[in-house]
Amino acid sequence: MTYRIISRNLFILAILMLFVLNACIKEENKEKEPDRSDQEAEHNMDNEIKTPDEERNGPADPLGKYDPPIEISTVRILGESIVFPEGQSVHDNVWYEDYKNSLGINLKNKWVVSHHSGEQKMNISIASGDLPDFFAVNANQLKRLIEADMIMDLTEIFESYASPLTREILAQNPTSLPSATFGGKLMAIPNTQSAIDYAHLVWVRTDWLEELKLPEPKTMDDLIKISAAFSKFDPDGNKQTNTVGLILTKDLIDGYGGYEGFMHGYHAYPMFWIKDEKGKLVYGSIQPEVRTALLQLQKMYKQGQMDREFGVKDMAKAAEAAAAGNNGIVFGQMWNPLWPILSSKEHDRTIQWQAYPLVSADGKPARPGIKAATTEYYVVNKGAAHPEALIKMLNLFVERIWGDHTTFEQFEKLYSSNGIEHHNYAAVQAWPSRKNLDIYLKVTEALRTKDTSKLNMEQLHTYNSIQAHLNGTGEAMEWAYERVFGEQGSFSVINQYLKDDLLVYDEFYGLPTPTMAEKNTILEKIEIEVFTKIIMGDPIENFDKFVRDWWEIGGSQITKEVNEWHDSMQGS
Predict the structure, then answer these.
(1) Which of 227, 268, 336, 343 could form a Cys-Cys staple with 332, CB 3.0–4.6 A?
(2) Are 255 and 312 part of one and the same domain?
């Protein structure tokens, strides 16, 4: 490959320059220092740091295979949507097999938990120091590990081993690598995602709209009326009062069943940092627009438009209503048809959902808020013997999934087939920022022209799935792909957001400030508890008390630190 030739030539040139430089230095120092003994020189040579590939094979090879093979450890936190085909598991699957066959890496999981207990389990591991060779953490955990000096500086390892495609993907979002850099040192590899994929939209049961002869939602008033009708007028026709309009979860902030999209319709941005009229950063959750939106949610709850027990149901429990076909409106993200809305289609093939843009409570357009694309970081234990293995596994992922040399059969085996997303098994990942939007744009063009020659493997896979649905030969999963990437799919909404320049970005994307690290967990817990109880009937004055408490408990200092960070970024 081209980069191997370039790396080899650069390495040879570097060695020659180093040889000349050392000769000059020795010549210059002859009169200043006595000659070193052979024994001392040999000792210094033994202590030079060399990467394993440099010791054995010359220049570092981004995809060099270990011979003999090595064993490294990690831990896994699995989401509900991850399933394994028969004969595979989180310990033995197509990606772990590829690590072994292609890189000579035997990857072992020290522990595996669901995402519900993942953060707590990782915190316990960090506190005890019982850590694997490499592992994924959130921003708070990354900060703790850096301050405790428990993880490696990856600056030189990344420079030596990252392939050109890996560098390209990580650079697509300008905040990703800076968010993992501390004191000029790259302390983690960000699991890059697409920020626009997190934009919220509203999913509505269109078969219920047709049944009740209701118009599509254009305003917040429209949506509230639709929600009320879905709750009162038996849209499923079973002569039971078992349907609700809006689904929420107990966490409030969720990719399915979260209240962010509803809040954005009131120009409110909870758990965001936004600019005030003076250009200073302020915390979105304490702004008056949130108070207004909470009052409306409280009214809808009193009218029976929501599950009475949403306050104790997480995303998985809330999804059961979708599976049973009992709800008709949910604020969520582009992937919702793939899970959990998919289960409703499997339950009843006549069910139909469609994504709509967020609706506004007034004449101003609703502007979806999105956060920085990086929420997860890969770090290397300071005691790990092979830190470069992390970069090699990342290179393998990007080459297999986004490279030009993967066959369609290889792509299906490692990415997705028969409704199972195999890419979830990979322990290290990075995703291009516009990947999914490009799928939508390229696939919809191919659907119109019937020309698939310009599609990459993933786009062709998506095209085939949608075509199967349109031809009537697809299953529920093919329907889900069409609802995401088809002409009227969720990405048609996101594409319009971009065209209209509607997205609002969280202005803070750095590592947690000192007071954030100390206080944010309790502040966010209080926020969710107070807001949930207000929705369920507590006096709205409790919002005002929350604002006062937030400032006193730590919000004042956090605001100061956030603005200091913002000022430093402006000057950088």
Answers:
(1) 336
(2) yes
